[in-house]
């Protein structure tokens, strides 16, 4: 985390500034050029000079020396308040987060009350009874600020509690306080450190305000807030005096916040480090099997590559899907299926670079303007997402959301719009369209929500429907219903469907053609029947073999050893080589092109051994 | 029904504050009773004078008894009498409430409206505005409001005399001057809140714009303007309102400082004067007033967020 932090210039500058301020304030007795109270009325209200680098105040006292000494009051108070806030917050947070239940409830409620308390009245009361004692005030401020520490610690402790090593410690009979001290505390330190910096900034601001209105200070002793108040008194004679005290406070507070930002970012990047950028690997110029875009296809994709931060995540994908046809894109998680779909939809976020052609209705959408792209959305190409429970806006009813799309596509209003919405809901097989239309998304079951989602996609009568794992998030029984619905709708409307899935059963059930993706590339493409019977790529064979439907009863289910390499680790040669039982030295030498199998014109495979393997294994499915 | 029940529970929680906050401020008084007498009578008061003072005001009684006694009278609207001049607390505070409310509510309106507008702009106008907001918000939160207030006075009351430097004009005396006298204090008090509201609005809007449902709506043909101004704004509303509530509680503390800078005759300036004189009944009374303001705002926010959340509204 420290190394990540040091890579952030703003954070480093802010940290260095803070360190400098703290050291200077600690060293005030040694480095302050004058006594903070030494008056020199002959040189009052002077601008910065060699003798007084920050000038002098109305009594001729040196401003730099007062800043340094005043810092002892301000930063000392900050330390007091922070210590109190942390002592209370960390203990309560750990207990609350770790012990849970009743204790947690009591502590959480008290924390809420304290957070809603207008703290200033408590502070005023404390200053009132303590004859304006700065220490008491800072202790009270610490107590008032403790809820934020309690919350952060509690959240972190709760997260840690779920971890496996805590459970094992409990099973081993370790005492609870010991578990908290040994295991929980070190793991919640990160969030607490970030919180320290944020809270430091807040406390310094509040304390400055209190000192400014003479609470917790004993003039003539200096404090940063008090110096602003001093400066204000002689504002018309010497406005400069506002600068040193105000700037010191502002810069210190800002530095604390920047340090907090830096720490937070460093901690975040520690968890999800961005992939190392590498020189782009050697790329095949054109696949041997590459053909120009198919004009008769509903959707024709050629040479589609997607990169983020110079790193390719999808490489040279090409496929066609004809009207009333279904193309399955299949592969394990992390193979680039969803990125491919998003690229076709033009929905990749900033930072992604998409190359290649996405031909739809004679227009290359990838190179067309955003207007042409927008014109196809819903009416040309529509989309059904993976998890129906988050695919609908939680704040609006089905009628409202579906009605909005109907209004856009069909320019219908009022009763006509309503009628069309109900018709769409009927079309996706919802038994009581009026009832469903009146519901909010959280009032729908997963299956109903997915039907509504499909209705949203149908609203524009699209020519192509892209469905990204439309059944993955659903119960098994519902999965079949949704697939039946898709099949039915395709028959009714004649739309082309691109179905993304990791389930070969779904492909066999629904698709005409299938594209098998592995590590960003299509490794095999062809008719479903042909590929299922005679898979040519070892990855396709392995996928088929590991499908429970295909495996022999009683025999252990074969699995593909190893994992999909991340884009940063793609080899130069065949991406699957590391996991392939048939690999030979040549597999790793150069990129493997996608080649058309001789016997079937529409069957393409990306494997240099496809020909030999056919002979070796006779096309039999083995893992 | 569940809507009402959940609202009732939250309102009951807020009302609890009305008992708890005065209790906290009251029990703080019990920590150092000797200091109170010294604060009122002066540091050179003799032991006998202190004992007489404490006995006369009942300060020699146990704190719990004193609290119950105070609470019993407070529910009838009697908040006790000032230690320094014997005046009834509610008579000292009542005329000041309006002054503080005009400042606090003014600031609430300013940081809410300006903050949301800036937040929406930075969520929709691309990275540059967003980055600018990040910088401005870091500075905005870091600049102490009291320092900013002084600078505002220098700039807009002294150098360019548009607004009065200090003082308060009652609305009944002159509506235009009332607004003029409030501009600088309201800006000083609202400044940090603007940036906080803007940041929350921006973050929540971006979260919504990038959410799966926004992707689906967009892919199926919904207009981008509808996704931003109808769907994302509506989804951002509840979390933004929650933050507004937190900032509002903080702005009460800020009002004490701001009222003192601009010499506004509100609760804040009175509370400082009374605290420095150890006139605890007055400070206690202000605690009650502030708590009532917080409770009212909390209840309004609870109602708003409950209505905005369809999960609670229509389970």
Give the C-alpha Rg of chain B.
Answer: 24 Å
Structural class of the secondary structure composition of chain B? mainly alpha
Question: What integer is the average pLDDT of chain B?
Answer: 87
Output the radius of gyration of chain A.
34 Å
Shape field of chain B:
globular
CATH homologous superfamily annotation of chain B: MetI-like
Class based on secondary structure composition and strand pairing of chain A: alpha/beta
Report the major sheet of chain B: none
State the name of the first-level CATH class of chain B: Mainly Alpha
Task: Identify the most extensive interface between protein chains.
Answer: A-B, 85 and 83 residues
Overall mean pLDDT of chain A stands at 84
What is the annotated CATH architecture of chain B? Orthogonal Bundle
Could you name the CATH topology of the domain at 2-28 and 56-271 in chain A? MetI-like fold
Oligomer: heterodimer
Strand order of the largest sheet of chain A: 6-7-8-3-9-10-12-11
Q: Tally the helices of chain A.
A: 22
Query: How many discrete structural domains of chain B?
Result: 1
In whole angstroms, the N-to-C terminal distance of chain A is 42 Å
* Strand-residue proportion of chain A: 5-15%
């Amino acid at each position: 985390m420290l190394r990540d932090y040091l890579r952030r210039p703003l954070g480093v500058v802010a940290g260095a500034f803070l360190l400098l301020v703290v050291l200077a304030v600690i060293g005030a007795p040694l480095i302050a050029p004058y006594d903070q109270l030494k008056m020199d009325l002959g040189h009052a209200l002077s601008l910065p000079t060699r003798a007084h680098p920050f000038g002098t105040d109305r009594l001729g006292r040196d401003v730099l020396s007062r800043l340094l000494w005043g810092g002892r009051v301000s930063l000392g108070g900050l330390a007091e308040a922070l210590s109190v806030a942390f002592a209370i917050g960390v203990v309560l947070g750990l207990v609350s987060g770790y012990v849970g239940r009743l204790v947690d409830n009591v502590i959480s409620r008290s924390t809420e009350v304290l957070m809603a308390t207008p703290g200033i009245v408590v502070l005023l009361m404390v200053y009132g009874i303590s004859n304006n004692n700065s220490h008491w005030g800072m202790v009270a401020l610490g107590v008032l600020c403790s809820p934020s520490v309690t919350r952060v610690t509690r959240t972190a402790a709760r997260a840690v509690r779920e971890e496996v090593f805590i459970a094992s410690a409990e099973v081993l009979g370790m005492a609870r306080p010991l578990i908290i001290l040994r295991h929980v505390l070190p793991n919640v330190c990160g969030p607490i450190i970030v919180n320290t910096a944020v809270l430091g900034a807040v406390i310094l601001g509040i304390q400055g305000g209190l000192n400014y209105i003479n609470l917790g200070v004993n003039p003539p002793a200096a404090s940063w807030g008090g110096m602003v108040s001093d400066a204000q008194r002689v504002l018309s004679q010497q406005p400069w005096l506002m600068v040193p005290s105000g700037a010191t406070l502002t810069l210190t507070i800002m530095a604390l916040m920047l340090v907090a930002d830096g720490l937070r970012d460093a901690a975040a990047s520690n968890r999800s480090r961005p992939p190392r950028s590498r020189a782009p690997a050697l790329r095949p110029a054109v696949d041997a099997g590459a053909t120009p875009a198919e004009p008769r296809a509903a959707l024709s994709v050629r040479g589609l590559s997607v990169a983020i931060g110079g790193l390719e995540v999808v490489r040279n994908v090409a496929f066609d899907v004809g009207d009333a046809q279904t193309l399955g894109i299949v592969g394990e998680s992390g193979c680039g299926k969803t990125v491919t779909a998003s690229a076709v939809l033009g929905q990749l976020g900033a930072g992604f670079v998409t190359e290649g052609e996405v031909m739809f209705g004679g227009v290359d959408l990838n190179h067309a303007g955003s207007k042409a792209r927008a014109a196809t959305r819903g009416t040309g190409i529509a989309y059904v997402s993976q998890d129906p429970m988050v695919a609908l806006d939680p704040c609006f009813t089905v009628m409202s959301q579906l009605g909005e799309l109907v209004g856009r596509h069909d320019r219908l209003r009022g009763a006509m719009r309503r009628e069309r919405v109900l018709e769409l809901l009927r079309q996706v097989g919802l038994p009581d369209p009026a009832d469903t239309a009146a519901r909010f998304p959280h009032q729908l079951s997963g299956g109903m929500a997915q039907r509504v989602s499909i209705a949203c996609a149908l609203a524009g009568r699209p020519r192509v429907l892209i469905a990204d794992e439309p059944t993955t998030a659903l119960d098994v029984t519902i999965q079949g219903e949704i697939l039946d619905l898709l099949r039915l709708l395709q028959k009714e409307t004649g739309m082309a469907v691109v179905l993304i899935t990791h389930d070969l059963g779904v492909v066999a059930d629904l698709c005409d053609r299938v594209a098998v993706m592995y590590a960003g590339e299509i490794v095999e493409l062809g008719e479903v029947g042909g590929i299922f019977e005679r898979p040519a790529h070892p990855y396709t064979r392995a996928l088929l073999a590991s499908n429970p439907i295909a495996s022999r009863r009683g025999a252990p289910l074969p699995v593909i050893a190893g994992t999909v390499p991340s884009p940063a680790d793609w080899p130069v040669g065949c991406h699957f080589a590391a996991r392939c039982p048939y690999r030979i030295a040549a597999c790793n030498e150069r990129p493997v092109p996608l080649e058309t199998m001789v016997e079937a014109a529409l069957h393409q495979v990306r494997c240099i051994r496809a020909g030999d393997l056919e002979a070796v294994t006779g096309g039999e499915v083995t893992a | 029904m569940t809507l009402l029940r959940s609202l009732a529970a939250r309102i009951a929680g807020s009302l609890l504050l009305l008992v708890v906050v005065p209790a906290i401020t009251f029990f703080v008084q019990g920590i150092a009773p000797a200091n109170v007498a010294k604060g009122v009578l002066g540091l050179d008061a003799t032991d006998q004078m202190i004992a007489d003072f404490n006995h006369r005001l009942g300060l020699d009684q146990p704190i719990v008894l004193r609290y119950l006694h105070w609470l019993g009278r407070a529910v009838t609207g009697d908040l006790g009498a000032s230690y320094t001049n014997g005046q009834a607390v509610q008579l000292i505070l009542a005329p000041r409430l309006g002054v503080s409310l005009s400042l606090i509510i003014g600031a609430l309106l300013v940081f809410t409206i300006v903050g949301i507008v800036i937040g929406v702009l930075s969520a929709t106008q691309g990275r540059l505005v967003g980055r600018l907001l990040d910088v401005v918000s870091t500075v905005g939160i870091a600049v102490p409001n009291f320092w900013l207030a002084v600078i505002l006075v220098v700039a807009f009351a002294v150098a360019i005399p548009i607004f009065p430097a200090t003082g308060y004009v009652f609305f009944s005396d002159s509506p235009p001057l009332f607004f003029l006298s409030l501009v600088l204090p309201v800006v000083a008090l609202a400044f940090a809140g603007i940036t906080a509201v803007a940041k929350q609005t921006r973050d929540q809007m971006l979260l919504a714009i990038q959410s799966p449902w926004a992707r689906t709506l967009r892919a199926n043909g919904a207009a981008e303007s509808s996704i931003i101004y109808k769907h994302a704004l509506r989804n951002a509303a509840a979390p933004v309102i929650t933050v507004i509530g937190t900032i509002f509680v903080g702005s009460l503390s800020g009002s004490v400082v701001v009222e003192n800078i601009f010499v506004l005759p509100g609760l804040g300036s009175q509370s400082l004067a009374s605290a420095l004189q150890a006139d605890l009944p007055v400070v206690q009374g202000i605690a009650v007033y502030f708590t009532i303001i917080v409770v009212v705002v909390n209840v309004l926010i609870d109602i708003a967020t409950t209505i905005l959340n369809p999960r609670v509204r229509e389970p």
